[in-house]
Write a structure and sequence with these properties.
With about 200 residues, the protein is an alpha+beta fold. The protein has 3 helices and 10 strands. Strands 1, 2, 3, 4 and 5 form a 5-stranded antiparallel beta sheet that branches.
């Protein structure tokens, strides 16, 4: 009974995401198996430290009553290696995961993205991608201001980002940080921006 409750909760959490990814109504059976796959990830695959869903296949039922769903996703392995995975997950009639198998041709290295660190848009995209894969304590974020890209003598480019952050769904604070990337778009560092000097009220 407890397992059914957990899967139902996962399905409910998946529905908003699925509505954006699916062009046709999601069947209850497919939603159920998607929830079971998510539950499997929750209790396994500790090496997958970040994951982005790319595509869910249809449900196929075997002669023995088992059901299989294909799942394609982008994964970050141990916080280092980016891979695109495509796997078939098979479940018994009682919902137990029987096996998972890599589809031929997977895993494969994530395609290299073209980045332009010389433009504000390019730098913003890099920062947004960084947030997607890090800062799990920031559960909500509101952009306040972006700076302009600044190139240093070492070839790296930085951008200042000011935003309102909600930490663990509780505390709210305004953050202002400097994100730095190398010419290829690889993350280098993030640090708090220096606070502006306080005015003492005296004329210069």
């Amino acid at each position: 009974m407890k397992t059914r409750v957990c899967v139902a909760a996962l399905v409910a959490a998946l529905l908003p995401l699925t509505a954006r990814c699916e062009s046709r109504p999601l069947s209850p059976e497919k939603a159920e198996l998607m929830g079971r796959v998510e539950d499997f990830f929750l209790h396994n695959f500790r090496d997958v430290t970040w994951r982005k869903s790319l595509e869910w296949g249809d449900v196929n039922t075997g002669d023995d009553g088992s059901r299989t769903i294909r799942y394609t996703y982008e994964a970050l392995i141990w916080g280092k290696q980016h891979l695109v995975m495509c796997q078939d997950f098979t479940f018994a009639p009682d919902g137990k995961c029987l096996r998972y198998e890599n589809v031929v041709g997977y895993p494969k290295e994530e395609a290299q993205k073209n980045v332009d660190v010389s433009t504000q848009k390019g730098m913003i995209d890099l920062v947004e991608d960084f947030f997607n894969k890090n800062f799990r304590d920031i559960t909500a974020r509101k952009t306040l201001e972006w700076g302009e890209p600044t190139k240093a003598e070492d070839g790296n480019t930085s951008i200042t980002y000011k935003y309102e952050a909600t930490i663990w769904d509780k505390d709210k604070k305004v953050m202002q940080q400097i994100f730095t990337f190398d010419p290829s778009g690889k993350f280098v560092s993030v640090k708090d921006a220096q606070p502006e000097p306080k005015q003492d009220g005296k004329s210069p």
